[in-house]
User: Fold this.
Amino acid sequence: MRAARFDRYGPAEVIRIEERAVPEVGDSDVLVRVDASAVGVTDAVSRSGTPWFARLFFGLRRPKYPLLGTEFAGTVERVGPGVTRFAPGDRVFGAAEVGAGATAEYVVVGEHAAVAHAPDGLDAAHAVATVDGFLTALPFLRDAGEVRPRQSVLVNGASGTVGSAAVQLAKHLGASVTAVTSGPNAELVRSLGADRVIDYTRQDFTTERDAYDVIFDAVGKRSFGACRRALTAHGIYLTTVPTGAIMLQTPWTRLFRGGRRAAIAFTGLRDSRTKGVELEQLAALVESGAFVPVVDRILPLDELVAAHRRVEGGHKVGSVVIAITDAAGPADASAADAATADDSREANGAPA
Assistant:
């Protein structure tokens, strides 16, 4: 089978596509023929080895996990003799463990790992585009932020993979949502459910005062210090980027201050069984029209280097998807796909 690999840290050009043996299937394993994978920030970080603290997990001097890709969507090819949840021919989507190598023609995952039956009505490319953003945004908003109905939530970086998922989830949780993005993406985030849109090229949301119960910086561009006064008296600031400052501010503001506080969630370290349950919830949300995928573009496996460059460029809208097979979905799809989000939501009775 063809699989993506890198043997040293560096730019996107260190990636190569090589031939490997199809993985063996254990008693409780599922072998998935991958139709589509996704390239996320974690893939780019693991390949580049930057920022420096990422190497504490990915390997200090050389990559500990040389096979690329975690998110996948495809069809079950074989199952181990102890598997009861899945059968050959089932359409599935999920997130493999780091190093399993989901950007490949086949990947093995545990039956009770982060894998679930794919949502009806989505091709593989659009199914895989929902995974990373949802599995990241959900624990941030639901667990760390404790978002509740009638709260005010601001999402910075609202058109990215995590941000677009956060807008939809915050709305689903009953919050009033303010989305921060650039002007060209304003209609996209409105279609995802944002009640208000701020164009960051024209307005700085941090100049507001006592405005938001939760500020979720999905791109790690604004600090707790910059956002603090925009929070309500007991508001919480969340960020996806584990800087030294946030690592100190999280325990300090929780233990020694009774007002505004900061928090980070290490979503990649959560139990894979929990993620599997959440993927089942995601499938139900997609099928009800309450959650829609946002696809930046779909590229073939041979253009994986270009996909990594796109992710590192910081201007993608939604997920960059890699088509492993023709069954992934139409090529050259873009974020314009999400322009139909309003129609999908209205047709299913969901709020636009």
In short: The chain has two domains: 2-129+293-347, 132-268. The radius of gyration is 20 Å. Residues 209 and 254 are 21 Å apart (CA to CA).
